[in-house]
Design brief:
Number of helices: 11
CATH architecture of the largest domain: 3-Layer(aba) Sandwich
Shape: globular
Number of domains: 2
CATH class of the largest domain: Alpha Beta
Strand content: 5-15%
Number of strands: 6
Distance between the termini: 44 Å
Mean pLDDT: 85
CATH topology of the largest domain: Rossmann fold
Length: 191
Amino acid sequence: MDAYDTDVVRDFEKAFSGRKTVLVTLQGFSDLLSDSIVFAMRNAPQDWCWLLRLPPAHSHRKAELVSELKVNRISNYDLDISNRASLYTLLKRVDQHVTYFSSVCYEALAFGINSIVTHASSRELYLEYINKGYFIYAATGRDLLSSLRENMVEEFIVEETPYMVKDIKNARKIVGSFLSRSFLGNHPSVR
């Protein structure tokens, strides 16, 4: 771990020790915060902290987001550490993950977190994973808050066949098979 990561981890532990943390990976919609996320944030216990992560291409909208939070009288959030830390540093440490439909939910699953997806299109996009219980769909703010409360205390459902390989030996083996001479020599696209 380099010095930067050490500083971020130290800041995370200092800021959120003993608190429930919900990472929200936002997407670049015209309204950064949906009504359901605002409802959940306003009605969640005050010891929960919402780590709001902007998409890198929308980091310039931080002031807009702060203004929206202020209008909605929401103060239990973080925009500093959540946008300074690497995604994986956060996923190793947060209690739960919420997104509209970001593929970060697959990455969260690799860290043992069953994400809650909130956008209507996520029902179709992740239907198989929702049906298996790996992801949770929350249509309303009440559904989101209820799902968060339940999933803060329950064990996560582990994926049978991981979407992402996180074991370095298996990853090397898989990549090696793709790059092997025998694979390339027998592949129709190479002929």
